[in-house]
Amino acid sequence: MQKTAVIFGGTGFVGRNIVKALAQRGMRIKIATRVPEAAFFLKPLGDIGQIVPVAYDPADYNTIAELISGADYVFNCVGILFEKPGKQSFTHIHAELPESIATAAAISNVKRLVHISALGIDTSSSNYAASKLDGEKRVLKAFPNATILRPSIIFGKDDDFFNKFAKIAQVAPFLPLIGGGQTKFQPIYIEDVVKAALQAIDMPTSDKTSPLGKAYELGGAEVFTFKQIFEKLLHYTGLQRCLVPLPFEIAKMQASILSLLPKPLLTKDQVESLKSDNIVGKKALTLSDLNIQPTSLDIVLPTYLTTYRPGGRFSA
Question: Is there a domain that residue 21 lies in?
């Protein structure tokens, strides 16, 4: 019989790539969204009627439970990088909403629940990290067999990291190295994250490799400092920009101003998160435990960052 998946956060970078992968499998997909029209662009990824955006209220448990009822799989990809006073808070989006989703999934006897979290949240002192960690605990309490995925910075076409800084580099004379640019990251390819999500619903539950109730830290093939990441970005875009070290305290002062923008370029909480590394722990379950080989950053970045070169992709 045709399986049904419900995806929360399906219009985001991770969510829409999971939608695409599930659609290719022929699965029926319901995309939970506050504004169904915002998810219409995903419908061509499947056959007619295969992908259906459904309205729900994140603050109303009943709409969440109704949406999940009858589903085989549930994916929670909802996340925010900054809070909107009076509208969206880390606690609501990263902790309370996942708890409601997990509770509804348990009551509906959903086969698998996959929760997308973030890497490094157990060592970071940021409010973002604290809310993500709280969300994981609430999910596992409500749905003990949930699978938690903790990706590092995610790269790939249309990503929210390299594309953003490439656009900034096109107009800015320099790029800031917050804290000296020594924070370590382990960027992971979006397709590897999708593979991990699919493995979380595919792997058997009869032996030690079962993904049920486990958390996996998803990091790429290499570890880079923030400075090295910017150097790669400038290399592949062909842009020549100065990399200027910026102490944490001065960065927080700038963030106080930038956070006033409708879509902040930087917040004080993001500066706080850069004080701790974002890499896979030595004892953690990783991509290898999901039988996935990580993709190198240098294989993928040239496929889309060259569009930011002066004169375009074929300028050379």
Answer: yes
Asked if the structure places residue 244 within a domain, the reply is no
Structural domain that includes position 126:
4-155+187-219+279-292
Residue 71 lies in a domain: yes
Number of domains the chain is built from: 1
Inside any domain, residue 311: no
Among 249, 268, 257, CA closest to 82: 268
Confidence tier at 262 by pLDDT (50, 70, 90):
confident
Task: Give the gyration radius of the chain's Cα atoms.
Answer: 20
- Going from the C-alpha of 40 to that of each of 185, 258, 278, the distances in angstroms are 34, 32, 34
What would the DSSP string read from start to end of 213-266? Answer: T-EEEE--S--EEHHHHHHHHHHHHT---EEEEE-HHHHHHHHHHHTTSSS-S-
Q: Could you tell me the CATH number of the domain that includes residue 88?
A: 3.40.50.720
Helix/strand/coil (H/E/C) assignment for every residue in 252-268: HHHHHHHCCCCCCCCCH
Percent pLDDT > 90 in the chain is: 91
What is the average per-residue pLDDT within 214-242? Answer: 97
Residues whose CB is less than 8 angstroms from the CB of residue 135 and which lie 6 or more positions away in sequence, other chains included = 94, 95, 98, 99, 115, 117
